[in-house]
Design brief:
- This protein is an alpha+beta fold.
- It is built from 5 helices and 11 strands; from the N terminus they run H-H-E-E-E-E-E-E-E-E-E-E-E-H-H-H.
- It has an 11-stranded antiparallel β-sheet.
- Helix 4 crosses helix 5.
- The N and C termini lie far apart (about 55 Å).
Length: about 230
Amino acid sequence: MKNVLFLIAIAFFFNVSAQFVPGENIASRDLEMAWLNNYRKGIKPQKFPTGVIGSPYASEVFVLGDIYFKGKFSGTFPLRYDGYSDEMQVLDEVDSVKAILKTKDIEIVLNKNRYILFDFVENDVFNQFYFIELIKDDRYDFLIRKTKWFQAGKPAQNSFVKAFPSKFSDIEEYFFKTDADSQPVRIPSSKRKFLNLLPDTLQEATEVYIKENHLSLKSKDDLFKILTFLNETL
């Protein structure tokens, strides 16, 4: 038993615990699951057409991820993210899939991505969404929202029109957030609209930086550079 625990500890230390195998014995898993009982619920099975292309999940398999409650580490669990339902799922002690209740008290690190829950109001509709934190700073945080969009297929109307299969598509949206913002701010693809979201004192320098470095507001890597520049300029 000591050898088994030692090998598990070594695996975690080198971050090589990739895919979770249902039924495998994880040290203290039952104890951790007892804590998580207060923050999980059953899920409604989703029915999609047979032959659908893609998946509602970021990854079909469950991967060991870390859960933090009110900033403190609470345990390592087999997790996966449902991008279609914006739902974090956990495989419980009897290998049954449950959903983790949405609460701002819980943060999740999965595949080296930190998932944080934020309130988000758009068109007078209130939601709570998971965002992945790419930059955490006292000034500008850089966030990305990765979701799945389902498009129902269409049968061929006649011999001249092709049928289209049902499929899932990956959607990425970019946001920034400051302490003054009550919620993440969507980053527009228009440079002028983006600059107008910044303080007057930063607009000119940021415009010059974008132009001189040939940066695009549609590129995640370029946005990372722009938000880093803003944090270093303030």
